[in-house]
Write a structure and sequence with these properties.
This protein is of the alpha+beta class and about 220 residues long. The protein has 3 domains: about 35 residues, no CATH class; about 110 residues, no CATH class; about 40 residues, no CATH class. It is built from 9 helices and 9 strands. The N and C termini lie far apart (about 75 Å).
């Protein structure tokens, strides 16, 4: 709806939508005022999120200053788990880890929060590891700096390594039944290799329990 300035002045219309303002003291109608207020405060924070925001130690990320509205935006995506006290990221995910864009660059959420609260510089050869084993957690008290070796050692110490035995191995040709049949077979290695489309050395390793030791 196109309304001229004269019409707005004399007919008491909202300058945004052209609907009656119902008051000479207002520039906008009540509906437009509500929409504008909601837009300016599009990331309302809970009390816990406000506390998280207040504890931020660094505002410079990669030599760029974080504006107040951006801090509201990222803090609004944090929900605190009352059971384990994890600050869980409820925004975009990348391989189970939170991710966000800042200054035309993608960051992992837990690395970003580590830079905000602990140290705003992370060496290229370092990783940010989780004490809580929760990929979505951004709580700086649950994060620590380490190397790739530390990351792998932590995974094995907590028994989180993937199971790639037997048929769970993507390169496996045989099944568990095939391996058991090969061990019990009395045929020559060459005949078994031809039957199961594998090499003779594969047959030998199965029979000597070098492979498929879990069955």
């Amino acid at each position: 709806m196109n309304i001229t300035i004269a019409n707005r002045k004399y007919k008491n219309l909202c300058v945004r939508c052209g609907i009656s303002k119902k008051s000479d003291d207002l520039t906008y109608c009540y509906d437009c005022l509500y929409k504008l207020f909601k837009k300016r405060n599009q990331y309302p924070l809970t009390l816990i999120q406000e506390e998280i925001k207040k504890k931020i130690k660094y505002r410079m990320i990669d030599n760029n200053y974080l504006r107040e509205e951006y801090m509201d935006r990222i803090c609004s995506k944090i929900i605190v788990n009352k059971t384990n006290h994890c600050w869980e990221w409820h925004g975009s995910l990348c391989r189970q880890y939170g991710c966000l864009y800042c200054f035309s660059k993608q960051y992992r959420a837990h690395r970003f929060f580590y830079m905000l609260y602990v140290n705003n510089f992370i060496p290229d050869d370092k990783y940010i590891l989780h004490k809580c084993d929760n990929p979505k957690c951004c709580n700086p008290q649950h994060l620590f700096l380490g190397t790739q070796h530390d990351n792998i050692s932590d995974m094995y110490n907590k028994h989180r390594q993937p199971d790639v035995k037997g048929i769970n191995n993507g390169r496996s040709i045989l099944t568990e039944k095939d391996a058991l049949d090969i061990r019990q077979s009395v045929y020559k290695y060459s005949e078994l290799a031809k039957q199961y489309h594998v090499s003779k050395s594969t047959i030998q390793r199965i029979k000597s329990y070098e492979t498929w030791r879990h069955i």
